TrEMBL record:
SMART domains found in the cross-reference section: CH
Native source organism of the sequence: Gibberella moniliformis (strain M3125 / FGSC 7600) (Maize ear and stalk rot fungus)
A single GO molecular function term of this UniProt record: actin filament binding
Cellular component GO terms, alphabetical: actin cortical patch; actin filament; actin filament bundle
Region feature Disordered, mapped onto this chain: 1-35
Keywords: Actin-binding, Calcium, Metal-binding, Repeat
GO biological process, one term: actin filament bundle assembly
Name of the protein: Fimbrin
Domain Calponin-homology (CH): 47-168, 196-300, 321-431, 446-554
Gene3D superfamilies per the UniProt record, alphabetical: Calponin-like domain (1.10.418.10)
InterPro entries on file: Actinin_actin-bd_CS (IPR001589), CH_dom (IPR001715), CH_dom_sf (IPR036872), Fimbrin/Plastin (IPR039959)
Pfam family, one: CH
């Protein structure tokens, strides 16, 4: 998205459009200029993306009890952005992409206890949207609740794309599709394959089918390699012969006619979605990625795996996966480059760890001691990687981390427990830094776990509840009630105890845990964990939850 001074008027092609309370300009060559927060800045919105994402929202939210009366949004105006203002459409979209992320009982919905939503109700809903988007791995560095209420279209469109993308790519997972095993190259291990980002796995899938069809071309991107429609024709015919899909589009010479013919073949598979002939020929990378991901999710067309292969897939080591998931989200929220996809593998060369140190403790890393990844891609030599990870261990020791007997080579070798231990201490340091002003008030050097436990118990009592814990390992946390009592102490009447269960069964405990996460996010707290982490009392992750509540309380 480009920003820059407002361009001079493009003659008669620009028509001022007023929609539902904010002005925006007409389209010039498929791009629409919208006003930025500053009078001198405009942002460009891609018209095809706006149209296709609006169409997607209309389709997936149709029939929703709270939203359906507002649908469908017109796909050729900016009305959809105005409709996002109260946070409900975005919250529902998040739950469509990653079900169960938001406890919808916590949303402020007109007609449900509240007649009409005011700005405060909207900003609470949008806190839930922003913090939940973070919790599913979207980058929300540039957007806050206020930007949604002020209808900053380019920011809302960017967030919508990330949410849709997360839903589409989240299903490209060996646990959901063990037959992805078929895509391994000859000398490749399953571990190496699973390091690939989902976009790369999609390209691998596309090329697997092109090769099976004896087609000479390969696809390396979602833009120039697909825009002539030829590769699509072959892919569709390969995965859908029983639906009557053929390579007929290859007979068309005109690119737009061929693109339309390709989409008609996709329609036979029920997958005419996200692309128009115009955006296909233009090679729009987002819309092509969405089209291909949707194709894979509906028609992977890979042979089921054998019992023997199944054992290899099931045996794939899941140790530490829950903590690794949270630590990955946290590292990516620091905006490390490139983003972490495969936690243990991506930390092996130390460069992500050293970036994280610098973000958490600015000025702590001497750039002269850092070996950078090769500019052309490819892996760093083991020698240089171990130099980096040794430096990461040394920095940890300088900051009082407990790293007895750990060497850089352990991280480079992907030792799971030791890697988790180091990253946990770095994340714990981040909590300490965030709470440093509170520590000063209490006359402490830094906030310890026991002080955090005491704070949480005090909050529970302050709200008139009598639950308490002895440590973050306390089994009673698993019912979910204690965290709700802490939230109740932070803001009275914020927890509706009619919704709270006894937490005695697994299902009841899960409902309480899910409720506590959404209420915390409504307050504006950044919560990385999922309900299972609370029910299983993962003490490190509970510590991050309470740390985030303390930081939020300081801002209230």
């Amino acid at each position: 998205m480009s920003t820059g001074p407002t361009p001079p008027s493009a003659g008669g092609g620009v028509v001022a459009q007023r929609t539902g309370g904010h002005a925006s300009k007409g389209s010039v060559g498929g791009k629409i200029q919208v006003q930025g927060s500053n009078a001198n800045i405009t942002h460009t919105i891609n018209e095809d993306e706006r149209t296709e994402f609006t169409r997607h929202i209309n389709a997936v939210l149709a029939g929703d009890a709270d939203i359906d009366s507002r649908l469908p949004f017109p796909t050729d105006t900016f009305e959809m952005f105005d409709e996002c203002k109260d946070g409900l459409v975005l919250a529902k979209l998040i739950n469509d992409s990653v079900p169960d992320t938001i406890d919808e009982r916590v949303l402020n919905i007109p007609g449900r206890k509240i007649k009409n939503l005011n700005a405060f109700h909207m900003s609470e809903n949008n806190n839930i949207v922003i913090e939940s988007a973070k919790g599913i791995g979207c980058s929300v560095v540039n957007i806050g609740a206020g930007d949604i209420i002020e209808v900053r279209e380019h920011l809302i469109l960017g967030l919508i794309w990330q949410i849709i993308r997360r839903g589409l790519l989240g299903k490209i997972d060996i646990k959901l599709h063990p037959e992805l095993y078929r895509l391994l190259d000859e000398d490749e291990t399953l571990e190496q394959f699973l390091r690939l980002p989902p976009e790369q796995i999609l390209l691998r899938w596309f090329n697997y089918h092109l090769k099976a069809a004896n087609w000479p071309r390969t696809v390396k991107n979602f833009s120039s390699d697909v825009k002539d429609g030829e590769n699509y024709s072959v892919l569709l015919a390969q995965i859908g012969p029983e639906y009557g899909v053929t390579r007929a589009p290859l007979q068309k010479q005109d690119l737009h006619e061929r693109a339309e013919a390709v989409l008609q073949e996709a329609d036979k598979l029920g997958c005419r979605k996200f692309l128009t002939p115009k955006s296909l020929v233009a090679g729009n990378p987002k819309l092509n990625l969405a089209f291909i991901a949707n194709l894979f999710n509906n028609h992977p067309a890979l042979d089921p795996i054998t019992e023997e292969e199944k054992l290899e897939v099931e045996d794939f080591d899941a140790e530490g996966e829950r903590e690794a998931r949270v630590f990955t989200l946290w590292l990516n929220s620091l905006d490390v480059q490139p983003a972490v996809v495969s936690f243990f593998d991506d930390l092996r060369d130390g460069s992500i760890l050293l970036q994280a140190y610098e973000k958490v403790i600015p000025g702590s890393v001497n750039p002269r001691h850092v070996n950078k990844r090769p500019a052309h891609g490819g892996e760093m030599s083991r020698f240089k990687a171990v130099e980096n990870t040794n430096y990461a261990i040394e920095l940890g020791k300088q900051n009082g981390f407990s790293l007895v007997g750990i060497q850089g080579a352990d991280i480079t070798d992907g030792q799971r427990t030791l890697t988790l231990g180091l990253v946990w201490q770095l994340m714990r340091k981040d909590i300490t830094v965030t709470l440093s002003s509170l520590a000063q008030k209490l006359g402490k050097r830094e906030i310890t776990d026991s002080e955090m436990v005491r704070w949480a118990n005090d909050m529970s009592r302050k709200g008139g509840r009598n639950s308490s814990i002895r440590s973050f390992k306390d089994p009673s946390i698993g019912s979910g009630i204690f965290l709700l009592d802490v939230l109740n102490g932070m803001k009275s009447s914020y927890v509706d105890y009619d919704l709270v269960t006894s937490g005695q069964t697994d299902e009841d405990a899960y409902l309480n845990a899910k409720l506590s996460i959404s209420i915390a996010r409504k307050l504006g707290a950044t919560i990385w964990l999922v309900p299972e982490d609370i029910c299983q009392v993962r003490s490190r992750l509970i510590t991050t939850f309470i740390g985030s509540l303390m930081a939020t309380h300081e801002r209230m």
